[in-house]
Specification:
Blueprint: H1 2-16, H2 25-47, H3 51-58, H4 63-67, H5 72-87, H6 90-98, E1 106-108, E2 111-113, E3 117-118, E4 121-123, E5 126-131, H7 139-155, E6 165-170, E7 175-180, H8 181-188, H9 196-213
Parallel strand pairs: 5-6
Antiparallel strand pairs: 1-4, 2-3, 4-5, 6-7
Helix pairs in contact: 1-2, 2-5, 7-8
Length: 220
């Protein structure tokens, strides 16, 4: 059943919202139902608790019923976020960042260390973290976002993702914020640009010890 469901989802995506495109409101609603369930699978994978997903299959006896398990409110919210992405001009901004990277906008879920560190998006040469919060005035929380972005960029030690800029997409505000990676690092380090290499080396030494202890490693 799950194999058939994924096959249908891929066909639907290719027909109604190919890479780099948004579909109509109706198509986005259909995709929202698909990706709500994909997100549930991801949550189970990350948490190690398959219980919620098992419960979904317990009430779904066919592909059609599986397609309908997403709550209506969640589907409507996702459709609104897709509309805002288009209406705010952020989709055009992402296309500009993507440049000539291909038919899509880039890569979703770039991995820096298996089961330890993976980002949200790489668009062109920009690493983007997507936030769906309403308020952005929690300084401590925002600070964690920024340091995490820098940490992910630094973990790309072999330049696999060719990150030259970092940024945030604030989905509920339709706002894309980006900074050149070196300038971003210098600002977080208090303007001590000359110490960036030393700070990165110290960070990587600590990160490597931790992720090795947890059974992971940086990607070659």
């Amino acid at each position: 059943m799950l194999g058939e469901w994924f096959a249908r989802a891929r066909r639907y995506l290719a027909e109604h919202a190919p890479p780099g495109q948004l579909g109509t409101s109706g198509a986005e609603a259909g995709l929202a139902r698909v990706f709500w369930l994909v997100s549930a699978f991801e949550d189970a994978y990350r948490s190690g608790d398959p219980g919620p997903v098992v419960e979904l299959f317990g009430v779904s006896s066919s592909v059609d019923t599986l397609h309908g398990v997403a709550p209506a409110a969640a589907v409507a919210e996702l459709v609104e976020l897709a509309q805002l992405l288009r209406e705010s001009g952020s989709l055009d901004r992402l296309r500009a960042l993507a440049g000539d990277s291909g038919p899509g906008l880039g890569w979703a879920g770039p991995v820096f260390a298996h089961h330890w560190a993976d980002g949200d998006l790489v668009v062109g040469d920009t690493l983007l973290d997507v936030k769906t919060v309403i308020r952005t005035d929690d300084v401590e929380r925002a600070s964690r976002w920024l340091w995490q972005l820098l940490g992910y960029a630094w973990l790309d030690v072999h330049d696999r993702w060719r990150i030259r800029a970092v940024g945030l997409y604030l989905a509920r505000h339709g706002l894309v914020l980006t900074w050149p990676a070196d300038e971003f690092a210098a600002r977080l380090l208090g303007g001590r640009g000359a110490n960036q290499l030393q700070a990165r080396d110290e960070f990587l030494a600590v990160a490597t010890r931790v992720l090795t202890a947890e059974g992971s490693q940086l990607l070659a």
